[in-house]
Amino acid sequence: xxxxxxxxxxxxxxxxxxxxxxxxxxxxxxxxxxxxxxxxxxxxxxxxxxxxxxxxxxxxxxxxxxxxxxxxxxxxxxxxxxxxxxxxxxxxxxxxxxxxxxxxxxxxxxxxxxxxxxxxxxxxxxxxxxxxxxxxxxxxxxxxxxxxxxxxxxxxxxxxxxxxxxxxxxxxxxxxxxxxxxxxxxxxxxxxxxxxxxxxxxxxxxxxxxxxxxxxxxxxxxxxxxxxxxxxxxxxxxxxxxxxxxxxxxxxxxxxxxxxxxxxx
Length: 265
Ligand code: ADP
Known about the structure:
Strand content: 15-25%
CATH topology of the largest domain: Rossmann fold
Number of domains: 2
Order of helices and strands: EEEHEEEHHHEHEHEEH
Bound molecules: adenosine-5'-diphosphate
Number of strands: 10
Shape: globular
Number of helices: 7
Strand order of the largest sheet: 6-7-8-3-9-10
Mean pLDDT: 94
Structural class: alpha/beta
CATH class of the largest domain: Alpha Beta
């Protein structure tokens, strides 16, 4: 298996240090082994994106260290690919050009790019859409292209920030299944941010539940259910209830905090 583990040690992130400081992450410690599928779960405002961006190297921690595939994270790097919620495609490029772009930048020989693009188009059921532009695709199709783009660069680690959050339920389930298939085939480490409890249980080997401000690890749970998982199964529902209670506690804290801020204003 490729080296793709991640070590997060004593990570803190403070926005606007000083009077209006926001402690977004506090003392996060996680070891994520090679090939694990991890979901970061919690209501909005608990630091999921901040942690993902720190791992991606877009916004470094205020203190603590992150290593990814053995390298200290000091900025974005080729061992980490990121898929965003809002597709992030180039609107003026066709599907195949969007997928090829990163390889072209890297100076990959044209013949190699062509065969890799063909492979990815097939893997994500996009072959018939290769000449289309993003505006002529559905949301689900656009997100397939975004995933193909990241896969093209063959990063051992894939970071995903609510990638299916804007999709309807059926498209979302299809893409979840495709992602699980690709993950089983390519054995990448995936860190996937979601606020959907069901999505986390459906996908992850491990669910890290975060607390609302400061963002800490509230619970770290291994999900030991065979895939493909059945959301109607009693074990699935038992876990859903357990996680629901944990997330609800944090949502309450968020709500109380908002009321407090409103009272001060
Ligand atoms: P989540 O992804 O779980 O919704 P975020 O990581 O976006 O949470 O945010 C965590 C906390 O940090 C929130 O309270 C948010 O308001 C705050 N925050 C995020 N980014 C910034 C920023 N650039 N400046 C100030 N506060 C921020």
